[in-house]
Amino acid sequence: MHIFPPQIEIGDEEGFSDKKDIFELKEFGQGLMHLNERVEDPLVIALDGPWGSGKTTFIKMWLGHLRQNGFPVIYFDAFANDHIDDAFTAIAGEVVTLAEELTDDKKKAFLDNAKSTFKVLLRSGVKIGVKALTLGALNQDDLEDLKSIPEDVAKEASELTDSFLQAQLENRAKDREVFDSFKTALEEISIELANKSMDKKTPREDSGEPVQPTPNRPLIFVIDELDRCKPTFTLALLERIKHFFSVPKVNFVLVTNLDQLKKSVSYSYGSDDEEARMYLQKFYHLATRLPEKKQLRGQSHIDGFISYVFNDFSKFEAESVHRQSIITSLSSIAEIRGYSLRTIEKISTRIALVLASADSRQLALAPLITCLCAFKIDCPELYMKAQNRTINLNEVEGFFVFSKWRKHVDLSETLAHDLWKYCLGSGSGDIKIFMGRNRFHEWRNVLPATCELIEGLKFSEER
């Protein structure tokens, strides 16, 4: 029996397979592809959504779909690369890697221009021993600071500053030429990459017959996990994209949580939410979110995902009623609490850890186990109160809102609620008879014993 949810492994050119596209996002992916194909201007799209909402899984399927249809693509995990000092080299390096299969002339031209641009940026970022002057004069505080510096050091720093500013002004025109040359080389190499991708036969979306893609499809550069990076690296990436990589035939998709990005802006610049929002809007042309489907193949989208997660927990094959009890209970809790897919995965893992050692009698407590595991992940304070039996029924009912749970034809929708009432000393006779078939028949023992079962496998969760 597996105790961790099965990871969705997606091949580079697999695309939206029926088995793995459990949220049926192919149509949305096709629309996003057509948008990138038809807009001729440089385009930056923000794919917005909270952590754990399935953005990365969608993007990996979408990239395979793009490759199938003749697009050159780059996937860049920003969080895995935020240790890199300079955001420009991080992005340019990905283009160089993709261009390995191109002719030496095109690749060398882009690499030479990238190196020249980086040298300019490096020179522009030179730090001096006093506050940097930004096209202006020292303010009063700066003058007061300088009074404390010995005359010889102050003179040397002043000369360095003057020399630095003079060089900056003299080199400004040359720097602009370097930047323009880099953008030209980037546009040329993106066209070359698109032509290379067109050499491969790709399937027609409707019939599966081989066709030749439309010419000059843009290079699609996906930057994932942007909201998990250090604020300084996040903002540096956005600024580099805007100033140096905004060229025809190069489009960016930023996979992120815009609310979290606003916090990065506020942290770095001390701005409020509205100012941060307006600042971020400079870096993308439009924002979109994954569509929320209420029904997937006859199930709610939460039911579909939870069923997928528990599909590999083979112990439940002989205990189908308990398996369905967990799915139904967890689905209702997830809908009411608004859980992300990642939170559902964490709760499912905790449930599987418990059930890996549960016997058939304990499986009858599946709805209660599910509730306690939700407490454990979502609200540890209430879990501790349940463990100590200091929790009251109002707290339980306020958290789970049993009256809103969806009914299931094979199960009593009140089972979880009745179990809690029994555990807290106000259970019905039916539940007492039900519990009498289990080891923990005394109502005072049920919660502590179930929590003990959960805590007994704590070491396994930390693998």
Task: Describe the protein in words.
The protein has 463 residues and is α/β, with parallel strands linked by helices. It folds into two domains: 26-289, no CATH class; 296-461. 56% of the residues lie in helices and 8% in strands. It contains 20 helices and nine strands. The chain has helices at residues 26-38, 55-68, 87-98, 104-124, 140-147, 151-198, 231-244, 258-269, 273-280, 301-310, 320-337, 341-355, 360-363, 366-378, 380-387, 393-400, 415-423, 429-436, 443-455, 458-461, and strands at residues 44-48, 73-77, 202-203, 210-211, 219-224, 250-256, 286-289, 295-296, 299-300. The protein has a five-stranded parallel β-sheet with strand order 2-5-6-1-7, sandwiched between helices. Helix 1 packs across helix 2 and helix 10 (301-310) runs parallel beside helix 12 (341-355). The longest helix is centred in the middle third of the chain and has 48 residues, at 151-198. 34% of the residues are buried. Mean pLDDT is 77; it is low at 126-150, 201-207 and 457-463.
